[in-house]
């Protein structure tokens, strides 16, 4: 790999004869295969040669943050600029991790085994999705860390301790809906804990949530004119816009969830039959939709001209090295960035707002709740009701109703 990057004979000799040459060359090839640019690879070559010299051919093969800081200090002592430290760390740490020489800092807690056991129960017994498990794990973990910090073991918890957790303003600032959600999560966790003998049997039942009224909030969907503005903002041949346009169309036309878009695979798009198969998370089964012409064109343009020919089965990949499938968080950033740039006012500026916009448009076109629920992949009709809280067409009809001579 060095031969293709280094044009100078002296530079090529230095890199080939330097310490850990095979390890460096192997990693550079890996980065090239992942889509790294030429100048990025050149930077990696130079910094890794520095790292190899500092480590030495007979040096240790176990590194942590402290050891890397020591290497960085020695690197900066040879050439110090505003970017040297960050550049050296950003190149060297992934290389050490690639070689298996990097030791990740691990912080263990006394409750770790209990938390892991609870997550297994959520997966195996309750059948929760990985996204739900990750979210609930994070909330329960925060609660257990708070207990650990205050010297409170699960076995000694009393209702007042849980009250203090919710009232600890230094630890968190939650709204009413967030408090209700966390109360539900902790109630289920403590019920499970009681069944395992970790805490008192009736502790979970002492948790009271703030009352949340069904359908109490107004829909937060942007208008369809705003959705069209978002799509129009991606009408260019820039690689980001080509990819983002296909993503935004799936969110707004099919009402897909961010995770459903992130996990969409190439084999789910049937070009011959002109259909797209979406694995709906809540229904836990695939649904087949006709491939709308505008969506087909956007997907084809992305796959044929932008998406790198890699081994990943997922449709949407990052456009910068390292190439990898997009995450739910990355899709949120795409939508949020477009909303912010266009100045679109909405209570929420993420992918779910486009899902709401899709549902609202279907309502205004006269679709029934059953039809909308089927389109969005809802499991029950109750989930669809939230999109029908304000039907502007129906309200206008009521407003125009002639009351005749009634006072």
SSE diagram, text form:
Layout: H1 2-5, H2 9-17, H3 21-33, H4 38-55, H5 65-78, H6 84-99, H7 112-124, H8 130-149, H9 159-167, H10 176-195, H11 224-232, H12 239-253, H13 258-262, E1 269-270, E2 275-280, E3 285-290, H14 293-305, H15 328-342, H16 351-364, H17 369-376, H18 381-385, H19 392-399
Antiparallel strand pairs: 1-2, 2-3
Helix pairs in contact: 3-4, 4-6, 5-6, 7-8, 8-10, 12-14, 12-16
Domain Core-binding (CB): 109-194
Organism: Orrella marina
GO biological process, one term: chromosome segregation
Task: Outline the structure in words.
- The chain is mostly helical and 407 residues long.
- It has three domains: 98 residues, no CATH class; 95 residues, Tyrosine recombinase, N-terminal domain (DNA polymerase, domain 1, Orthogonal Bundle); 172 residues, hpI Integrase, Chain A, CATH 1.10.443.10.
- The chain is 56% helix and 3% strand.
- It contains 19 helices and three strands.
- A three-stranded antiparallel β-sheet has the order 1-2-3, with no helix packed on it.
- A hairpin with a 4-residue loop joins strand 1 and strand 2.
- The longest helix has 20 residues.
- About 3% of the residues have low confidence.
